[in-house]
Amino acid sequence: MSKQINILYFAALREQAGKEQETRDTSAQNPAELYAELQAVYSFELPQERLRAAVNHAFCAWDTPLNEGDIVAFIPPVSGG
Which of 1, 3, 7, 22 could tie 68 with a disulfide, CB 3.0–4.6 Å? Predict the structure, then answer.
């Protein structure tokens, strides 16, 4: 079953997607499936293991169920000093 998910992109993912956010129809059941779908579309270079997933502004497990209207963000590693 397809649902609309709002996706936020940060850092390298934002650059590779060419946008900061989008609303997408998807049949992905969880962030892991959604990232795999987006990786195929945008050729994201970062493997899932290097990212954190967040749903509705809270970090979550990769198998957290997604619902219509959720806001999903994939957070790449942060470097700084």
Answer: 3
**52: pLDDT confidence band, cut at 50, 70 and 90?**
very high
- Residue 40 to residue 3: CA distance in whole angstroms: 19
Handedness of CA 77, 58, 13, 19 (dihedral sign): negative
User: Does 53 score more than 80 pLDDT?
Assistant: yes
Strand ranges for the chain from DSSP E: 3-9, 21-26, 52-55, 58-60, 71-75
Structure tokens given for 11: 């850092």
CATH T-level assignment (fold) for domain 3-75: Ubiquitin-like (UB roll) (3.10.20)
Model confidence at 65, pLDDT cuts 50, 70, 90, reads: very high
CA atoms within 13 A on the CB side of 78: 6
Would the pTM count as exceeding 0.90? yes
